[in-house]
Design brief:
Length: 568
């Protein structure tokens, strides 16, 4: 046991040292050095070699194994993992280590699919916050759960003979997922109280990186790119464009909010749709073979649709590559909030035992020469991801702290801190106290929707769904509007079952009606279509649509500039 543990740690540590301590030219490619090549001089001129590091690590682990008070409970995977992660994070915030399980999850995510039954589930809790059960909320088109007839409101009783009642939703999800081709024997209780057992063969479930595509206004198409850039993203985007143009789109909103990035090649492919031949998408610079590269468009007839690109603090990496390329070439009007600021490129290095090292191998520049990576020299990961990133104070004026460059038409843009929007639109916020109140309302809303859908609350048969889900439906303003009788019925239900005072419900009426309508739309048309409900109440999105004339003017000016350059 000790020997195998030490061997694993030695292999991983030496690999990390080889990958980071040895200079290599981009033209020669990666070479495996000998241990004698890995030598560093300390202040007292004593050489530090790989052998000594390995010996020290082995000795330290032996001492821990022989003397640590809780040695029997040691988790060696976590011990090795934390050691390697700490070492990598002294390099930069984005180099990381994945153990075998995490690496498998990483690969599954990049492929935009997982293995399971293909259903969205939701947990219902009582007034004290105790989990009652988990329910089916929607199934996906052509997924095993859909073919098996599972539908909104089915209470999941057990999976493969194991009770699912009263356990957290994440545990129910883990039991529903599993290797492709294996069986999930699921027993549910239907809305009418009858029990049903279905045998479902798990399969690959697509996770589209573009969850919603529809005509948000006459002539205005909407593409939600809010999850990541995966292996299917560019093809999904092309299909979305084809669908919207068939529906009469002449202007486009691309929603990148919350998109943490992913595969650079997919961002490059999407940029190619809108940029003319030989226009630069990004420049990548690094030491690894192939890292130094200029990505250019190869499109001789780019799409001319005016674009508003909506961003917030979440977009990073590949998202910022796309936004930066279209901004620098004046091909899209960027609106919203300053993006995260990740300009480092990682490459996965598979290791032995199924683990993986995700190592930063390059930096990238936008077409105008901007480096958008935020400063990380403080060494604090917490500060990097919170105060400098997702929790930064947007009420404080954000000053450009990087190099000034210019777009094709001469507009000033700055590096060093993400992509700054052309027009700032702050996200609506609520107080922490109001957030807690709204959170407490989610369970009574879900419970009420379940009772309405099942017919346990009479008089609202028009809100029930007694048919298979018709996917790819665009909701209308008249679909599932919350009527006054339904509102009064909800207030009575919430007061009796969850002790929610009617006055408190009235104060949050807009939130409750919006969330309740989302539940009914989800039951009728699926989870993706239900996203359209919240878009109607989104001030950032609505303002982005209002800015379409500016986007159109910007696109026209960019086209004139590009044509003038081509005709020289």
């Amino acid at each position: 046991m000790k020997k195998s543990s030490l061997s694993l740690c030695s292999i991983l540590l030496i690999f990390v040292l080889f990958s980071n301590a040895v200079p290599q030219s981009a033209g020669d490619g990666p070479k495996s050095p000998t241990k004698n090549q890995i030598v560093s001089k300390t202040n007292n001129s004593n050489p530090v070699t790989a052998e000594k590091i390995e010996q020290d690590m082995a000795e330290a682990l032996t001492i821990i194994q022989d003397n640590y008070v809780d040695a029997k409970s040691l988790d060696y995977n976590e011990l090795f993992k934390s050691s390697i992660e700490t070492m990598l994070h002294t390099l930069d915030p984005h180099s990381n280590y994945f153990d075998a399980k995490e690496f498998e999850e990483f690969r599954t995510e990049q492929s935009a699919q997982y293995f399971g039954i293909g259903a969205t589930i939701g947990e219902l809790r009582d007034k004290d916050g105790k989990t009652i059960a988990t329910y089916i909320k929607a199934t996906f088109q052509d997924a095993p759960a859909n073919r098996a007839g599972l539908e909104y409101g089915d209470k999941i009783l057990d999976v493969n003979g194991k009770s699912m009642l009263g356990i957290p939703q994440r545990d129910v999800s883990s039991n529903l997922r599993g290797p492709r081709g294996t069986m999930a024997k699921v027993t549910v209780e239907k809305g009418n109280g009858k029990k049903q057992t279905v045998e479902i063969i798990r399969d690959a479930i697509p996770q589209p990186s573009i969850p919603e595509v529809y005509m948000i206004r006459p002539g205005v198409g909407y593409i939600a790119m809010t999850t990541g850039f995966y292996q299917t993203t560019a093809n999904e985007f092309r299909e979305a464009m084809k669908q919207l143009k068939a529906d009469g789109m002449t202007q486009l909103v691309v929603d990148l909010r919350g998109n943490g990035g992913g595969l650079v090649r997919e961002a490059n492919s999407i940029a190619n749709i809108f940029l003319a031949r030989d226009q630069v998408v990004l420049t990548q610079k690094g030491r690894y073979e192939g890292a130094n590269q200029v990505y250019k468009s190869s499109n001789s007839s780019p799409d001319q649709t005016p674009i508003v690109m909506l961003v917030n603090r979440g977009p990073a990496s590949a998202s910022e590559i796309l936004a930066g390329a279209l901004q620098d070439h004046d091909r899209a009007l960027i609106v919203g909030e300053n993006t995260f600021g990740k300009g480092l490129v990682q490459l996965p290095f598979p290791l032995e035992y199924g683990s993986m090292l995700l190592l930063t191998i390059a930096k990238y520049e936008t077409p105008s020469g901007r480096l958008i990576q935020r400063d990380y020299t403080s060494g604090s990961l917490y500060d990097y991801y919170t105060n400098g990133g997702s929790l930064r104070d947007e009420n404080q004026p954000r000053k450009p702290n990087g190099q000034e460059t210019k777009t094709d038409t001469g507009r000033k843009v700055f590096g060093g801190g993400g992509i700054m929007p052309d027009e700032t639109i702050k996200q609506s916020t609520i107080t922490a106290e109001r957030g807690r109140i709204q959170s407490k309302l989610l369970d009574p809303i879900f419970a009420f929707a379940l009772d309405v859908e099942s017919g346990r609350i009479t008089g609202f048969e028009s809100f029930q769904t007694n048919r298979p889900i018709p996917f790819d439906y665009n909701i209308k303003k008249t679909d599932f509007q919350i009527t006054e009788p339904l509102w009064q019925a909800f207030k009575k239900f919430a007061a009796e079952k969850y002790k929610i005072q009617p006055a408190q419900a009235d104060k949050e009426r807009e939130f409750i009606e919006r969330t309740l309508r989302t539940e009914f739309v989800m039951a009728a048309y699926g989870v993706q279509t239900s996203l359209q409900v919240f878009n109607d109440f989104d001030p950032q999105l609505n303002r982005a649509i209002e800015l379409m004339p500016q986007a159109k003017q910007l696109a026209q000016e960019a086209a004139k500039k590009t044509n003038a350059q081509l005709n020289r």
